[in-house]
Every structure is written in structure tokens, then in C-alpha cells.
Amino acid sequence: NKVSNTHSNTLQPSYDLSDSYYIIVNFVACQLFALLMAVWFRIYLHPSKTSPFIRHVVATLLGFYLALFCFGWYSLHFLVQSGLSYSVMVFAGLENMHKYCFIVTLGYLILCQITRVYVFDYGMYSADFTGPMMVITQKITSMAFEIHDGLTKREGQLTPGQKYFAISRMPSLLEYLSYNCNFMGILAGPTCSYNDYKAFIEGTCYQPRHQENANGKENGKYKQTEPSPKNDVISKLCTCAISLAVYLSLYKLLPVERSIDDDFVNSTPFHLQVVYLYLAMLALRPKYYFVWTLADAINNAAGFGFNGYNKDGSPRWDLISNLRILDIEFATSFKLFLDNWNIQTALWLKRVCYERCPINPTAATFLLSAMWHGVYPGYYLTFLTGIGMTMAARAVRHNIRPYFLVSDSYKGIYDVITWAWTQVAISYTVAPFVLLAVGPSLKFYRYVYELLIHCGVGDTMSAFLILKKYIHFASNSVV
Fold it and tell me: Which ranges form a coiled coil (predicted)?
């Protein structure tokens, strides 16, 4: 693997394995090291004992060390991307700084992704150096818009959320690098607002704060003592262990590629193919559960992620959580699934695109998401499909759901049906995202289309056309 062969070989076994496995081993080892450092950071470099300057320096240096260990000299891309963007922030005029910064940051990420995919190794393992760059891109662009809001707009021009996130002064270079490359989030994020990170570094994150879903009464009642993240960290580490065990047990048994295998398609009834596709996607998700939950636990162990108190007085450590597993697996709509999956990325897309795009924000948001993920054609097929799925789901929910709210039993039936259809729709939409290339993705679409026509469940094509006409009519009625 030409891209990733500069990583540290300290943990390399004596027997030969592919370079992708070395990256995985290094990644997990670094995250476990970061977890230990997070506990040390919270106890020995507590804001009451250490200045924000020292905390910024240590968090940044540890982050650079982990990046070098995992990605070698390719981690210099993190500095180049951050340096270029900071130069734009400093030297460009405030009126257009956020736009220029957005173009430079996202453009540099896409250039690296093009080089990684089409010059070095098409189809390589995704945990390469562009993974951290994706999170850094979110942070840089978020900060650029927040600085623009804070320094160029009046309060009346901002939404309540934008007022809270607005930055009132230009961060120093150290603060900027610490925010982008700290050891808690350099490898897997999650992204966060600069004001939240600054409050964590300065030790003011336990004070009452604005949050869309925070309970101000409980915050005020229990704010006197600093809560411990121990229970939440242990709980999240247990979730990580279960997720990793499930993933390692199932991912080889249920490869998505089997859904386009000729022998499998020709010998398997349509309904069993649908079930298999759902199970194959279900087997992939624990990988993300493991990575994102471990990243969340690391930040919590350092004291970052406090989000107020529950009604019973227990602390909430979900400020920067990236997913809600039960809400994902039992989602009864396309929107509910997306709202609970990769939460911080969804919030980033909302803040920098959906809330600010004057023309068709839904399509623009899906397009930006595809560009941010990478240059594989499968990403674009997935997100283009997602636009149609989202619009159709809105129309059906708006027009059909009210008929099922007349009683609890009807509501229960509706929830079961919509859960099943949501899981099928998500599996169908995400399949090209996993298959990556155009050929396999189009083959998948062709098989699904042919099976819808020829499966022995009555005149499926007629039903499909009726549904298509209904969705078209419903969409027009919503508009």
C-alpha cells in the first residue's frame, strides 16, 4: 500500500499482513493510549491546576504524536490543510473569509482523496490519513463560519444557535491547532464547536450553558460540583467491546458483495435477498459504533462532553456523542435514522450548508456530504438516492401517518411497518456506499429492478408504478 506505508512499525508482528491491518492495529492502540492520556489529562492537568496555555500545548503535541504514529509523514497534510486555512482566516477580509476558507479546506481534502484513490490505491481501507482530515475539515469550516457570524453580523441577524456558536475574537495559532489536532479527537473526532472546546480547556464547561435540548432547571440545580465521567466512560467502553465482538463475528459471514453475486441472486428468493441485504448492513454498523463510541469515551475521560443534567440529577455526557444506537436500530423513518447516525456530521452539515443555502438546501446538503466523504462514485449514488428517499419519506409521513394516529393499536402497526420499510430503504440506499465503484453499484440496481419485476408477489411492477405516481402526487401536495 503506497499511501500508508510510512506509519510506525512498532506494533508490526513478525509475520506478514497487509498494510491495512497495521493501520487498524496502530489506530486501536493509539486510541487506547489516548484514553489513558485523557484520564491523566483530566486529573493532573485540571484547569484548577494548569493554565489554558499548558493544556493547549500538551493536547496539541500529544495529537501530533498520535498522528505521526498512525500515518507517518502523511500526517503533515493535517498541518498543511490547517496552515492554509488559518492564513485565509487571517489575511482574507472578514466579509468573504468563511467562503474562501470553505473552498480551500474542502478543496484540499478532495485533492488528497483524489490522489489517494486514483493515483495510489483504488479501494484501499478507509482508515487512511484522509479520515482525520475529514474531521479537521469540519472543524475548520465550522470555525470560519462562526468567526464570520461573531465579527460581521449583529445579533438580530443570527439564529439562537448561531449566537451561541459565534466567535467574538480570532483564535491564536495555538488555540486553532489545539482545536483541530488535539489528542482526544485527532484520529476519529468527533467534531465540536470551538466555543465548547475552549470552555473545556478553560474549565468553564460545567457552568450553565445554552443547548437546544438542555434542561436549564437541572443545570442550575446541580451545577455546584464537577461531575465525574467515570460511569459513562465505563458504559461506553462496554458498548465498544460488544460492538467490536459483534462486528468481528459477523462481517465476514455477511459480505455485502454477495448481494450482487450471480449464483446467490439466481438461487435466492427475492424476500430472502432483502433480508440478507438488511443483515449485511446490520453487520457493518458495529464497526462505526466501536470507533465513534470509543472516541466519545476518550473525550469524556478527559472531561470533555458534559451536557448538563438529567431530571434525576445524573450528569449527561452526550454533548459530542456521534450516535444513538437504539434509536438507529429502531428508527421508524428515514429522518430518524439520519438524525441519530453520525450526529456531529449532521449538525455540521446543518450549520454550514442547510441553514445558509438559499436554493434547495436539502439537495445541497446531500451533495456536500457526498463530496466530503470522498470521490468514490458509490458515495454520490448513495447521496443522490438519499435525496429522493428523504423527499418521498416526508411526503408519505405527511399524508399517510395521520390516518394511523387514531388509536394506539393503529399507531403500533404503523410503527412496525415503517420500521421495516426504513431498514430496507436504508439498506438499499447505502449499498453503493459500501460497494464504492460504478460497476458493482449499477449491477446492484439492475438486480433490484429485475427482481421487482419478476418476483412472484403479484404484479410488482404495477404496484411500483402506482407507488411512484402516489409519491409524485404527494410530493406536489406537500410543496
Answer: none
Among candidate residues 157, 164, 181, the one with its CA nearest the CA of residue 56: 181
Per-residue pLDDT tens for 297-327? 999 999 999 999 988 888 999 999 999 999 9
State how far the Cα of 76 lies from the Cα of 78, in Å rounded to an integer.
5
**Contacts by 49-52, CB closer than 8 A, 24 or more apart:** 52/201, 52/202
What three-state secondary structure class fits 192? Answer: coil
Given a cut of 70, whether residue 14 has pLDDT beyond it is no
Phi, psi values for residue 13, rounded to 5°: -75, 165
187 sits in which H/E element: none
| Helices (H), ranges, 315-404 | 325-329, 334-340, 343-349, 361-373, 377-400
Burial class (CB in 10 A: 0-12, 13-18, 19+), 465: exposed
Q: Where are the alpha helices (DSSP H) in 115-167?
A: 130-152, 160-165
CA 439 to chain CA centroid, Å, is 26
- Write out the catalytic residue numbers: 342, 373
**Contact yes or no for 340/272 (Cβ under 8 A):** no
- Nearest to 435, CA basis, from 386, 374, 378: 378
Show me where the domains of the chain are located: 19-204, 323-479
Residue 186 has pLDDT above 90, yes or no: yes
User: Would you call 329 helix, strand, or coil by DSSP?
Assistant: helix
Least confident of 22-26, 415-419, 471-475: 471-475
Q: How far apart are CA 23 and CA 211, in angstroms?
A: 37
Q: Choose among 338, 302, 337, 332: nearest CA to 320.
A: 302
Model confidence at 120, pLDDT cuts 50, 70, 90, reads: low
